[in-house]
Amino acid sequence: MRKAGTGPEVQPEDLDWKLIGAFIWHASMIIVSNALFAFLPPSDVRGLFRPARIGTYTLLYMFQVISLLSHRMVLSSNGFQPVTFKGWFIHIRARSWISVVLTRIFTRGRSWKCLVSTAGFFGANIVTAVAYVALYGRLKFGAHATDLGFGVLMAVCYSCIYLYRSKDVLAYPAIQRVRFFRVKERVPRALQETLLYTVPALLIFILSRRSLVPLGLLWGCMASCELCVMGWVLGGEMLQIVFTERVQLARPENPDPNEPLLSELASSNPFMQDLALLDLAITAEGQGGEAAWRRTFIFMDQSGRAAWGPLASYMLGEIRDFTEALAAALPSASADTAATSRLKGAAGPAASNTAVRWNVLQPSPSTNLRILNEELDLAAWNVRNKFYRINWCMRGLCGLAVAAQRGEDRYGVVLLCEPTLPNITLSLLSVVLALQQYTKSVTAARSRRSSQFNPIVGHIDNVMLQPVEEVAFALEVAARNAVNRLAVAYGDRLRECVQRVERANLAYGSKGDLESLLATMLA
Q: pTM to 2 decimals?
């Protein structure tokens, strides 16, 4: 398999069909929205069927189509790495709101392509907003309801809030369901969010005017704003829904069902890489039918070099990179010992006579001595942005190993070909241990900052806005579930396989620590 990122940058046909599907659903919902807004005072239900008004509504939707395309331009599979400044007496941490604003709105991706897409996003929204205020406001409320400055303000407020809340980053569902039920679940909640984008623009509009705002102008601006923002929000939700649906990369008529999967994993398109991993995870966990047929081709090559080796190595590589990012942020015992001795020496002999603190989640002296902890910031970014990808990698590895134990692996590829079952188990145990220590570390920091400690429940709605310890805890639960599935399938033989490994290149933890963790999970 080619290295990831070396494939040609060609827009896959599957993504084009997804965009077409978003257009169709978006158009149908905008038609319904226009019909509902016709009942608002002054009511103009009969005017909907006049040729002139049909032409105006068609023109307005053409602007919405342009805006929807700009939403697609900024749509991202993952968030961008945080912006930090160190030096010149400027210290901006990645967790500060200044860094978040710079990262998500202004310096997205640090490339000309991202700059152009962001400028196009703001420009398309401004044109659409001005068109709605001018055309829809004049159409329904008269000329006195037109205020183009309000349209520009509305578009800027919406664009900034949309990017700041990471609504452009794909959020995959925990369970893949039919599109109708996802629309039914998300659209009512999306309509409530229109107030979030409308109210700030209206408040700034009212406060910026030196004179009283006429009631007709205010009502016209509000109605046109609501309809315009509703089109934006529905478009964003539809892109989220269709671009997070599974793409089946192999069909029964394919002579080699592994070729499309390997090709997309080797491409430079993060959308298709994520969709390929999602398809692989569902295939690995599927029961019978097409899933079993595809797994047969994965285990068919006795050498493992055709499918099993590249697929497993890719997933293990993702897990290892993630674990190393967490390990770099975790304090080492030697560094803590040195930092503690320095602190005691600076505080004098009386420091050793202090009372015992009953907080078991002690802060790390070595990490707290750093002014800017870039490792912690990068680890938090990895936890949020690789939440789905690491989940799919763990599910894929675990599902294939369990399927091999059921007898689908006739040649013993999982046990004999690299990467083998012991390597997979040690990698999963390593990420469990790293996530466990990382969750303790960030939870301790949060409990010292906040007077009210909120319990971690592991329920994830939006990983970009969720506290990082909750996202890490949910990942830890998923990693433990993967190891538990292997333990149920292989039993004590899993421990014997791990013990026979002489040399293990582990991303985090020693072999003894991982064996102890496995023993507790097997017990």
A: 0.86
